[in-house]
Specification:
This protein starts with 6 loop residues before the first strand and ends in a 19-residue tail after the last strand. It is an alpha+beta fold. It has 14 helices and 23 strands. It folds into two domains: 207 residues, no CATH class; 197 residues, NADH Oxidase (3-Layer(aba) Sandwich), CATH 3.40.109. α10 packs across α13. The strands form six sheets. The chain has a seven-stranded antiparallel β-sheet. It has a six-stranded antiparallel β-sheet with strand order 20-19-18-21-23-22, with helices on both faces. The chain is globular and about 80 Å long.
Length: 493
Protein backbone atom coordinates (compact mmCIF):
# COMPACT_ATOMS: atom_id res chain seq x y z
CA UNK A 1 0.00 0.00 0.00
CA UNK A 2 1.47 3.37 -0.99
CA UNK A 3 1.77 6.13 1.57
CA UNK A 4 -0.79 8.93 1.10
CA UNK A 5 0.70 11.83 -0.82
CA UNK A 6 1.01 15.07 1.18
CA UNK A 7 -1.04 17.95 -0.19
CA UNK A 8 0.88 21.04 -1.35
CA UNK A 9 -1.02 24.25 -0.55
CA UNK A 10 -0.01 27.85 -0.14
CA UNK A 11 -2.04 27.96 3.08
CA UNK A 12 0.66 25.78 4.65
CA UNK A 13 3.02 28.75 4.26
CA UNK A 14 0.76 31.15 6.15
CA UNK A 15 3.16 31.20 9.12
CA UNK A 16 6.37 31.35 7.02
CA UNK A 17 8.16 34.61 6.24
CA UNK A 18 11.19 35.38 4.06
CA UNK A 19 13.91 37.74 5.24
CA UNK A 20 17.45 38.80 4.41
CA UNK A 21 20.04 36.38 5.80
CA UNK A 22 22.66 38.02 8.00
CA UNK A 23 24.11 41.49 7.40
CA UNK A 24 22.66 42.03 3.91
CA UNK A 25 21.44 45.43 2.75
CA UNK A 26 19.41 46.34 -0.35
CA UNK A 27 20.35 49.63 -1.97
CA UNK A 28 18.23 51.11 -4.81
CA UNK A 29 19.56 53.56 -7.40
CA UNK A 30 17.62 56.31 -9.17
CA UNK A 31 16.31 53.89 -11.82
CA UNK A 32 14.99 51.39 -9.29
CA UNK A 33 17.84 48.89 -9.74
CA UNK A 34 18.50 47.01 -6.50
CA UNK A 35 22.01 46.14 -5.34
CA UNK A 36 22.45 43.59 -2.56
CA UNK A 37 25.52 44.31 -0.44
CA UNK A 38 27.03 41.70 1.87
CA UNK A 39 30.49 41.90 3.38
CA UNK A 40 32.78 43.39 0.74
CA UNK A 41 30.66 42.08 -2.14
CA UNK A 42 27.75 43.53 -4.07
CA UNK A 43 25.47 42.13 -6.75
CA UNK A 44 22.64 43.68 -8.77
CA UNK A 45 19.50 41.62 -8.13
CA UNK A 46 16.92 43.32 -10.34
CA UNK A 47 14.78 46.38 -10.84
CA UNK A 48 11.58 47.24 -8.97
CA UNK A 49 8.70 49.62 -9.38
CA UNK A 50 8.22 52.28 -6.70
CA UNK A 51 5.38 50.30 -5.11
CA UNK A 52 7.45 47.10 -4.97
CA UNK A 53 10.44 49.06 -3.73
CA UNK A 54 8.41 50.36 -0.81
CA UNK A 55 7.44 46.84 0.22
CA UNK A 56 10.93 45.36 -0.35
CA UNK A 57 12.18 47.27 2.69
CA UNK A 58 10.19 44.85 4.83
CA UNK A 59 12.58 42.04 3.84
CA UNK A 60 14.85 43.09 6.69
CA UNK A 61 12.19 41.92 9.14
CA UNK A 62 10.32 39.44 6.95
CA UNK A 63 7.68 39.24 4.20
CA UNK A 64 4.97 36.60 4.44
CA UNK A 65 5.52 33.85 1.89
CA UNK A 66 1.87 32.98 1.22
CA UNK A 67 1.40 36.04 -1.02
CA UNK A 68 4.68 35.48 -2.86
CA UNK A 69 4.27 31.79 -3.68
CA UNK A 70 0.98 32.47 -5.49
CA UNK A 71 1.23 36.19 -6.45
CA UNK A 72 -2.13 37.94 -6.89
CA UNK A 73 -0.83 41.38 -7.84
CA UNK A 74 1.94 42.76 -10.04
CA UNK A 75 3.78 43.95 -6.94
CA UNK A 76 3.61 40.44 -5.42
CA UNK A 77 5.08 39.05 -8.66
CA UNK A 78 7.93 41.58 -8.62
CA UNK A 79 8.78 40.73 -5.03
CA UNK A 80 8.62 36.98 -5.72
CA UNK A 81 11.09 37.41 -8.62
CA UNK A 82 13.38 39.51 -6.40
CA UNK A 83 13.20 36.89 -3.68
CA UNK A 84 14.21 34.10 -6.06
CA UNK A 85 17.19 36.11 -7.30
CA UNK A 86 18.29 36.83 -3.75
CA UNK A 87 17.83 33.17 -2.86
CA UNK A 88 20.07 32.08 -5.74
CA UNK A 89 22.84 34.13 -4.14
CA UNK A 90 22.20 32.61 -0.70
CA UNK A 91 20.90 35.88 0.75
CA UNK A 92 17.48 34.72 2.02
CA UNK A 93 16.33 32.64 4.97
CA UNK A 94 12.83 31.68 6.09
CA UNK A 95 11.40 32.11 9.57
CA UNK A 96 8.69 29.67 10.67
CA UNK A 97 6.21 30.43 13.43
CA UNK A 98 3.59 28.17 14.95
CA UNK A 99 0.87 30.55 13.75
CA UNK A 100 0.96 33.73 11.70
CA UNK A 101 2.46 36.44 13.85
CA UNK A 102 3.34 33.90 16.53
CA UNK A 103 6.64 33.11 18.21
CA UNK A 104 9.44 31.93 15.93
CA UNK A 105 9.84 28.15 16.08
CA UNK A 106 12.60 27.62 13.51
CA UNK A 107 14.61 29.21 10.72
CA UNK A 108 15.12 27.48 7.38
CA UNK A 109 18.51 28.14 5.71
CA UNK A 110 18.68 27.22 2.00
CA UNK A 111 21.70 25.08 1.07
CA UNK A 112 21.14 24.97 -2.69
CA UNK A 113 20.52 27.94 -5.03
CA UNK A 114 17.22 26.52 -6.30
CA UNK A 115 15.64 25.85 -2.89
CA UNK A 116 12.16 27.35 -2.62
CA UNK A 117 9.84 26.60 0.32
CA UNK A 118 6.85 24.50 -0.65
CA UNK A 119 5.31 23.48 2.64
CA UNK A 120 2.65 20.80 2.51
CA UNK A 121 -0.58 20.32 4.37
CA UNK A 122 -0.35 17.04 6.26
CA UNK A 123 -3.62 15.16 6.57
CA UNK A 124 -4.23 14.13 10.22
CA UNK A 125 -4.39 10.49 9.10
CA UNK A 126 -0.93 10.50 7.53
CA UNK A 127 1.82 8.56 9.28
CA UNK A 128 5.26 10.22 9.31
CA UNK A 129 8.76 9.09 10.30
CA UNK A 130 12.18 10.65 10.71
CA UNK A 131 14.48 10.07 7.75
CA UNK A 132 17.48 7.84 8.46
CA UNK A 133 19.61 10.49 6.72
CA UNK A 134 18.48 13.35 9.01
CA UNK A 135 20.66 14.38 11.93
CA UNK A 136 20.83 17.08 14.59
CA UNK A 137 24.01 18.83 15.68
CA UNK A 138 25.26 21.89 17.54
CA UNK A 139 26.47 24.77 15.36
CA UNK A 140 27.72 27.57 17.55
CA UNK A 141 24.79 28.33 19.84
CA UNK A 142 22.21 26.84 17.47
CA UNK A 143 20.78 23.35 17.19
CA UNK A 144 20.35 22.47 13.52
CA UNK A 145 18.70 19.55 11.78
CA UNK A 146 19.91 18.70 8.30
CA UNK A 147 20.22 15.93 5.74
CA UNK A 148 22.40 15.32 2.67
CA UNK A 149 19.16 14.84 0.72
CA UNK A 150 17.74 18.21 1.74
CA UNK A 151 18.02 21.51 -0.07
CA UNK A 152 17.93 23.39 3.25
CA UNK A 153 18.82 22.99 6.91
CA UNK A 154 16.64 24.04 9.84
CA UNK A 155 17.74 25.96 12.93
CA UNK A 156 15.50 24.88 15.79
CA UNK A 157 14.48 27.60 18.25
CA UNK A 158 12.46 25.34 20.54
CA UNK A 159 14.09 22.30 22.26
CA UNK A 160 10.66 20.64 22.38
CA UNK A 161 10.72 20.42 18.57
CA UNK A 162 14.02 18.55 18.71
CA UNK A 163 12.52 16.09 21.19
CA UNK A 164 9.46 15.57 18.99
CA UNK A 165 11.64 14.89 15.94
CA UNK A 166 13.73 12.42 17.91
CA UNK A 167 10.51 10.62 18.83
CA UNK A 168 9.80 10.03 15.15
CA UNK A 169 12.35 7.23 15.07
CA UNK A 170 9.07 5.38 15.51
CA UNK A 171 6.49 6.41 12.88
CA UNK A 172 3.48 8.30 14.26
CA UNK A 173 0.22 9.72 12.95
CA UNK A 174 0.06 13.48 12.42
CA UNK A 175 -3.18 13.57 14.45
CA UNK A 176 -1.31 12.23 17.50
CA UNK A 177 1.56 14.68 17.04
CA UNK A 178 -0.85 17.63 16.90
CA UNK A 179 -2.25 16.68 20.28
CA UNK A 180 1.18 16.75 21.93
CA UNK A 181 2.16 19.75 24.02
CA UNK A 182 4.67 21.92 22.19
CA UNK A 183 3.69 20.80 18.68
CA UNK A 184 5.53 23.38 16.49
CA UNK A 185 2.79 23.74 13.92
CA UNK A 186 1.98 22.21 10.56
CA UNK A 187 4.04 24.76 8.60
CA UNK A 188 7.34 23.53 10.03
CA UNK A 189 6.40 19.87 9.63
CA UNK A 190 5.37 20.55 6.04
CA UNK A 191 8.79 22.09 5.30
CA UNK A 192 10.54 19.13 6.96
CA UNK A 193 8.58 16.80 4.67
CA UNK A 194 9.49 18.90 1.62
CA UNK A 195 13.19 18.64 2.58
CA UNK A 196 12.95 14.90 3.08
CA UNK A 197 13.94 15.07 6.75
CA UNK A 198 10.54 13.65 7.62
CA UNK A 199 8.68 11.38 5.21
CA UNK A 200 5.17 10.02 4.92
CA UNK A 201 4.69 6.28 5.16
CA UNK A 202 1.85 3.83 5.75
CA UNK A 203 0.27 2.88 9.05
CA UNK A 204 2.07 -0.09 10.56
CA UNK A 205 5.25 0.54 8.55
CA UNK A 206 8.43 0.54 10.62
CA UNK A 207 10.04 3.31 8.54
CA UNK A 208 12.94 1.11 7.43
CA UNK A 209 15.21 1.43 4.39
CA UNK A 210 12.63 0.21 1.90
CA UNK A 211 10.05 2.70 3.19
CA UNK A 212 12.10 5.77 2.33
CA UNK A 213 12.87 6.21 -1.36
CA UNK A 214 13.62 2.69 -2.51
CA UNK A 215 15.86 1.68 -5.36
CA UNK A 216 19.38 3.11 -5.32
CA UNK A 217 18.79 4.99 -2.04
CA UNK A 218 18.52 1.67 -0.19
CA UNK A 219 22.18 0.98 -0.98
CA UNK A 220 23.49 4.07 0.84
CA UNK A 221 24.71 4.14 4.44
CA UNK A 222 24.11 7.39 6.33
CA UNK A 223 27.77 8.38 6.65
CA UNK A 224 28.56 7.64 3.00
CA UNK A 225 25.78 9.85 1.59
CA UNK A 226 26.67 12.62 4.03
CA UNK A 227 30.34 12.46 3.03
CA UNK A 228 29.43 12.54 -0.68
CA UNK A 229 27.11 15.55 -0.32
CA UNK A 230 29.29 17.59 2.06
CA UNK A 231 32.71 17.00 0.47
CA UNK A 232 31.57 18.22 -2.96
CA UNK A 233 29.90 21.41 -4.16
CA UNK A 234 26.23 21.87 -4.96
CA UNK A 235 24.32 20.58 -1.93
CA UNK A 236 25.52 22.77 0.93
CA UNK A 237 26.40 26.38 1.67
CA UNK A 238 29.59 25.73 3.66
CA UNK A 239 32.96 27.27 2.71
CA UNK A 240 34.74 25.09 0.16
CA UNK A 241 38.31 25.00 -1.11
CA UNK A 242 41.59 26.58 -0.03
CA UNK A 243 40.35 28.86 2.75
CA UNK A 244 43.48 28.62 4.98
CA UNK A 245 41.14 28.75 7.97
CA UNK A 246 43.77 27.80 10.55
CA UNK A 247 46.63 29.95 9.26
CA UNK A 248 46.31 32.26 12.25
CA UNK A 249 45.69 29.47 14.74
CA UNK A 250 48.57 27.05 14.20
CA UNK A 251 51.53 26.65 11.83
CA UNK A 252 51.28 24.37 8.81
CA UNK A 253 52.69 20.86 9.23
CA UNK A 254 56.12 20.35 7.62
CA UNK A 255 56.10 18.91 4.09
CA UNK A 256 58.50 16.13 5.13
CA UNK A 257 57.78 14.28 8.36
CA UNK A 258 60.47 14.62 11.04
CA UNK A 259 62.60 11.47 11.21
CA UNK A 260 62.14 8.74 13.80
CA UNK A 261 65.11 8.35 16.15
CA UNK A 262 66.20 4.90 14.89
CA UNK A 263 69.33 4.32 12.81
CA UNK A 264 68.47 4.95 9.10
CA UNK A 265 69.28 2.46 6.33
CA UNK A 266 70.56 4.26 3.22
CA UNK A 267 68.45 2.82 0.38
CA UNK A 268 70.31 4.75 -2.30
CA UNK A 269 73.50 2.94 -1.34
CA UNK A 270 71.70 -0.40 -1.42
CA UNK A 271 70.09 0.17 -4.84
CA UNK A 272 73.23 1.50 -6.52
CA UNK A 273 73.54 5.08 -7.69
CA UNK A 274 74.52 4.23 -11.33
CA UNK A 275 71.42 2.18 -12.12
CA UNK A 276 69.14 3.88 -14.61
CA UNK A 277 65.57 4.52 -13.55
CA UNK A 278 63.00 2.11 -15.02
CA UNK A 279 60.77 3.76 -17.68
CA UNK A 280 57.79 3.89 -15.32
CA UNK A 281 59.81 5.59 -12.59
CA UNK A 282 61.05 8.16 -15.10
CA UNK A 283 57.48 8.77 -16.25
CA UNK A 284 56.36 9.27 -12.65
CA UNK A 285 59.03 11.92 -12.14
CA UNK A 286 58.09 13.74 -15.34
CA UNK A 287 54.43 13.96 -14.33
CA UNK A 288 53.24 17.44 -13.39
CA UNK A 289 50.04 19.46 -13.45
CA UNK A 290 49.29 21.78 -16.38
CA UNK A 291 46.77 24.58 -15.95
CA UNK A 292 47.39 26.58 -19.15
CA UNK A 293 46.55 25.20 -22.61
CA UNK A 294 47.47 26.27 -26.15
CA UNK A 295 44.47 28.11 -27.68
CA UNK A 296 45.96 27.79 -31.19
CA UNK A 297 46.47 24.01 -31.00
CA UNK A 298 43.60 22.19 -29.31
CA UNK A 299 43.76 18.51 -28.53
CA UNK A 300 42.53 16.30 -31.41
CA UNK A 301 39.80 13.69 -31.37
CA UNK A 302 42.39 11.03 -32.25
CA UNK A 303 44.46 12.02 -29.20
CA UNK A 304 41.40 11.99 -26.97
CA UNK A 305 40.48 8.53 -28.31
CA UNK A 306 43.98 7.21 -27.60
CA UNK A 307 43.94 8.75 -24.12
CA UNK A 308 40.62 7.12 -23.20
CA UNK A 309 41.67 3.81 -24.78
CA UNK A 310 44.79 3.68 -22.64
CA UNK A 311 43.15 4.69 -19.35
CA UNK A 312 39.45 3.81 -19.14
CA UNK A 313 38.43 1.31 -21.84
CA UNK A 314 36.81 -2.02 -20.89
CA UNK A 315 39.40 -4.71 -21.60
CA UNK A 316 37.01 -7.65 -21.51
CA UNK A 317 33.55 -8.44 -20.16
CA UNK A 318 32.45 -11.65 -18.47
CA UNK A 319 30.11 -13.04 -15.79
CA UNK A 320 31.31 -12.87 -12.18
CA UNK A 321 33.64 -15.59 -11.01
CA UNK A 322 32.10 -15.97 -7.56
CA UNK A 323 28.48 -16.20 -6.48
CA UNK A 324 27.25 -12.86 -5.15
CA UNK A 325 29.94 -10.76 -6.82
CA UNK A 326 27.44 -8.77 -8.83
CA UNK A 327 26.99 -11.04 -11.84
CA UNK A 328 29.54 -9.40 -14.17
CA UNK A 329 33.04 -8.05 -14.29
CA UNK A 330 34.45 -5.64 -16.87
CA UNK A 331 38.10 -4.77 -16.05
CA UNK A 332 39.73 -1.53 -17.19
CA UNK A 333 43.46 -0.62 -17.25
CA UNK A 334 43.44 0.48 -13.57
CA UNK A 335 42.66 -1.54 -10.39
CA UNK A 336 39.27 -1.24 -8.70
CA UNK A 337 37.91 -2.39 -5.32
CA UNK A 338 36.46 -5.86 -5.72
CA UNK A 339 36.60 -5.46 -9.50
CA UNK A 340 33.58 -3.17 -9.17
CA UNK A 341 34.71 -0.70 -11.87
CA UNK A 342 32.00 1.70 -10.86
CA UNK A 343 33.63 4.78 -12.41
CA UNK A 344 32.33 6.41 -15.59
CA UNK A 345 34.01 9.12 -17.67
CA UNK A 346 31.97 12.06 -18.98
CA UNK A 347 33.80 14.36 -21.39
CA UNK A 348 32.99 18.07 -21.48
CA UNK A 349 34.50 19.55 -24.65
CA UNK A 350 35.25 23.23 -25.14
CA UNK A 351 37.78 22.89 -27.96
CA UNK A 352 38.79 19.63 -29.63
CA UNK A 353 39.80 19.28 -33.28
CA UNK A 354 37.32 16.90 -34.90
CA UNK A 355 34.76 17.00 -32.07
CA UNK A 356 32.08 19.61 -31.43
CA UNK A 357 31.63 21.49 -28.19
CA UNK A 358 29.33 19.54 -25.89
CA UNK A 359 28.97 16.98 -23.12
CA UNK A 360 29.59 13.31 -23.88
CA UNK A 361 29.54 9.99 -22.06
CA UNK A 362 32.49 7.70 -22.73
CA UNK A 363 30.98 4.27 -23.39
CA UNK A 364 33.92 2.21 -22.15
CA UNK A 365 32.47 -1.04 -23.48
CA UNK A 366 32.11 0.20 -27.05
CA UNK A 367 35.02 2.68 -26.87
CA UNK A 368 32.71 5.41 -28.13
CA UNK A 369 31.61 8.90 -27.17
CA UNK A 370 27.85 9.35 -26.86
CA UNK A 371 26.37 12.89 -26.73
CA UNK A 372 24.40 13.77 -23.60
CA UNK A 373 21.70 16.40 -24.14
CA UNK A 374 23.14 18.95 -21.71
CA UNK A 375 22.04 22.59 -21.65
CA UNK A 376 24.60 25.18 -22.74
CA UNK A 377 24.19 27.15 -19.49
CA UNK A 378 25.09 24.04 -17.48
CA UNK A 379 28.07 23.31 -19.72
CA UNK A 380 29.27 26.90 -19.20
CA UNK A 381 28.88 26.45 -15.45
CA UNK A 382 31.01 23.30 -15.54
CA UNK A 383 33.85 25.05 -17.36
CA UNK A 384 33.47 28.06 -15.06
CA UNK A 385 33.88 25.92 -11.95
CA UNK A 386 36.93 24.20 -13.48
CA UNK A 387 38.48 27.61 -14.18
CA UNK A 388 37.77 28.69 -10.61
CA UNK A 389 39.30 25.50 -9.18
CA UNK A 390 42.41 25.89 -11.35
CA UNK A 391 42.67 29.68 -10.78
CA UNK A 392 42.92 30.39 -14.52
CA UNK A 393 41.18 32.84 -16.86
CA UNK A 394 40.61 30.50 -19.82
CA UNK A 395 38.56 27.31 -20.01
CA UNK A 396 40.48 24.04 -20.36
CA UNK A 397 40.08 22.36 -23.75
CA UNK A 398 38.48 19.26 -22.21
CA UNK A 399 37.20 18.41 -18.73
CA UNK A 400 36.74 14.74 -17.89
CA UNK A 401 34.20 14.28 -15.10
CA UNK A 402 34.72 11.03 -13.21
CA UNK A 403 31.33 9.85 -11.98
CA UNK A 404 30.52 6.80 -9.88
CA UNK A 405 27.64 4.38 -10.15
CA UNK A 406 27.59 3.98 -6.40
CA UNK A 407 25.46 0.86 -6.32
CA UNK A 408 28.24 -1.16 -8.01
CA UNK A 409 30.25 -0.82 -4.77
CA UNK A 410 27.66 -0.44 -2.00
CA UNK A 411 25.74 -3.53 -3.20
CA UNK A 412 28.68 -5.57 -1.86
CA UNK A 413 30.59 -3.50 0.69
CA UNK A 414 29.28 -2.17 4.00
CA UNK A 415 30.58 0.87 5.94
CA UNK A 416 33.48 1.59 3.57
CA UNK A 417 31.74 1.77 0.18
CA UNK A 418 32.23 5.49 -0.46
CA UNK A 419 35.83 5.42 0.74
CA UNK A 420 36.50 2.67 -1.82
CA UNK A 421 34.97 4.82 -4.57
CA UNK A 422 37.34 7.69 -3.67
CA UNK A 423 40.33 5.34 -3.64
CA UNK A 424 39.36 4.07 -7.09
CA UNK A 425 39.04 7.67 -8.27
CA UNK A 426 42.55 8.47 -7.02
CA UNK A 427 43.94 5.50 -8.91
CA UNK A 428 42.20 6.61 -12.11
CA UNK A 429 43.46 10.18 -11.73
CA UNK A 430 47.05 8.91 -11.46
CA UNK A 431 46.43 6.77 -14.55
CA UNK A 432 45.25 9.91 -16.37
CA UNK A 433 48.41 11.75 -15.30
CA UNK A 434 50.72 8.99 -16.54
CA UNK A 435 48.97 8.62 -19.89
CA UNK A 436 48.90 12.39 -20.35
CA UNK A 437 52.63 12.61 -19.65
CA UNK A 438 53.49 9.80 -22.02
CA UNK A 439 51.42 11.40 -24.80
CA UNK A 440 52.99 14.84 -24.31
CA UNK A 441 49.65 16.38 -23.32
CA UNK A 442 48.83 18.56 -20.32
CA UNK A 443 46.32 18.09 -17.57
CA UNK A 444 45.34 18.83 -14.00
CA UNK A 445 43.08 17.17 -11.46
CA UNK A 446 40.69 19.69 -9.94
CA UNK A 447 39.59 19.49 -6.33
CA UNK A 448 35.97 20.56 -6.81
CA UNK A 449 32.97 18.63 -8.14
CA UNK A 450 29.39 19.91 -8.16
CA UNK A 451 26.90 17.11 -7.58
CA UNK A 452 23.79 19.18 -8.37
CA UNK A 453 25.33 20.54 -11.58
CA UNK A 454 26.10 17.01 -12.71
CA UNK A 455 22.50 16.02 -11.94
CA UNK A 456 21.29 18.85 -14.20
CA UNK A 457 23.72 17.88 -16.97
CA UNK A 458 22.65 14.23 -16.97
CA UNK A 459 19.19 14.13 -15.43
CA UNK A 460 20.41 11.50 -12.93
CA UNK A 461 19.71 11.81 -9.19
CA UNK A 462 22.85 12.70 -7.23
CA UNK A 463 22.68 9.52 -5.13
CA UNK A 464 22.36 7.21 -8.14
CA UNK A 465 25.36 8.39 -10.16
CA UNK A 466 27.45 11.41 -9.26
CA UNK A 467 30.84 13.09 -9.73
CA UNK A 468 33.78 12.19 -7.50
CA UNK A 469 36.64 13.72 -9.51
CA UNK A 470 37.50 15.96 -12.47
CA UNK A 471 40.49 16.19 -14.78
CA UNK A 472 41.28 19.03 -17.18
CA UNK A 473 43.03 17.87 -20.37
CA UNK A 474 44.51 19.56 -23.44
CA UNK A 475 47.65 20.60 -25.25
CA UNK A 476 49.97 22.56 -22.96
CA UNK A 477 50.59 26.22 -23.65
CA UNK A 478 54.15 27.05 -24.76
CA UNK A 479 56.41 27.45 -21.69
CA UNK A 480 56.88 31.18 -22.22
CA UNK A 481 53.09 31.77 -22.10
CA UNK A 482 52.19 29.54 -19.12
CA UNK A 483 51.38 31.27 -15.81
CA UNK A 484 54.35 31.55 -13.48
CA UNK A 485 52.46 29.85 -10.64
CA UNK A 486 51.32 26.82 -12.69
CA UNK A 487 52.64 24.35 -10.14
CA UNK A 488 52.07 20.73 -9.33
CA UNK A 489 49.18 19.24 -7.38
CA UNK A 490 45.39 19.28 -7.26
CA UNK A 491 43.74 22.58 -8.17
CA UNK A 492 41.15 23.95 -5.79
CA UNK A 493 42.42 21.84 -2.88
Amino acid sequence: MDAPAPRRRTTALAAVSARLAGPVTLTPDADGRITACFGEQAVVVGQLSQAALARAGALAGGLMMAALVAPRTAVDAELAALLRRLARHGLIEYAVARTRGGEEEAVVEPQTPDYWPEAVDLDPGVTVALSRFAYMRRRGSDLVVESPRAGALVRLRNPATAAMLAGLVRPARVSRLRRQEGFPGTALFGLLVQCGMVFATTAGDDGGRLSEGGGELVLWDFHDLLFHARSTAGRHANPLGGMYRYAGTMPALPAVRPSWPGKPIDLAAVAGADLALPPLAALLRERHSTRAFDPARPITLAELARFLDGTARVLWHAPGEHEGDGGEIAPRPYPSAGSSYELEAYVAVDRCEGLGRGFYHYDAGRHALVPVGAKEQDLKALFGEAMYAMAVAAAPQVVIVIAARFGRVSWKYASLAYSLVLKDCGVLLQTFYLMMTQMGLGGCATGICNVDLFARLTGIAFHVEGPVGEFALGRPAPPDTAPADAGDGVAGA
